[in-house]
Amino acid sequence: MRDFLTALALALTFEGILYALFPAGMKRLLATLLVHPDQSLRWAGLVAAIAGVALVALVRRVGIV
After folding, report:
1. Residue partners of 14: CB distance under 8 A and separation at least 6
2. Stretch 37-41: mean pLDDT, rounded?
3. Domain residue spans in the chain?
4. Please, what is the Cα angle at 42 between 55 and 6, to 5 degrees?
């Protein structure tokens, strides 16, 4: 649970930094997402989630940090 909360805090930190530093850019990014079909966004999210889980598994297996 501690790892999950740490990961959530990091995600919120990075997202907050992006909105704080580049508010107009984030608005443009979100506007471009509206024109993409749901299926392509779903696939992109699935690929990102799988890559994240694989990276966590790799880091834990190799013993980085």
Report:
1. none
2. 96
3. 2-62
4. 40
